[in-house]
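sry for the spam today, last one i promise. struct tokens for design, 144 residues
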């Protein structure tokens, strides 16, 4: 399994949205500028996130995007699946069900890898990542 640019940039953009919204809608251009990502590319990313109900949007000059839920309820797995689709190491349609060796490998390796990856991404929330990000920022603060 490999996470594409869409998944990596999308996760960064959702974290940026969370950090900068304070309950207000955030424009894509502001996220694009802070994250150095093309606004056009972010439009595609946020379209997929909106279709999956991870974010909601309002059009117009005061519009933008807002999370559609609490950061503690949004799982990294939800975001990645919205952007990447199936995250399995080997897709089901790539398995030859008539080959016993291939089925053995699927059951004893591919399925176990998937299980561990899914367990990990489905147990990390957006809030967890934001908390870790904020811990890192505290270490860089200088107090006089």
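last one done:
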């Amino acid at each position: 399994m490999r996470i594409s640019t869409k998944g990596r940039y999308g996760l960064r953009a959702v974290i940026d949205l969370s950090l900068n919204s304070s309950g207000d809608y955030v424009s894509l251009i502001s996220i694009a500028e802070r994250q150095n990502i093309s606004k056009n590319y972010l439009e595609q990313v946020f379209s997929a996130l909106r279709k999956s109900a991870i974010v909601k949007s309002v059009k117009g000059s005061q519009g933008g995007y807002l999370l559609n839920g609490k950061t503690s309820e949004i799982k990294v797995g939800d975001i990645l699946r919205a952007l990447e689709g199936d995250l399995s190491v080997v897709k089901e349609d790539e398995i030859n069900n008539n080959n016993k060796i291939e089925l053995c490998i699927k059951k004893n390796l591919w399925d176990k890898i998937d299980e561990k990856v899914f367990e990990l991404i489905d147990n990390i929330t957006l809030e967890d990542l934001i908390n870790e990000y904020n811990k890192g920022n505290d270490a860089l603060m200088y107090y006089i």
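The two ends are 47 Å apart (CA to CA). ok im logging off now
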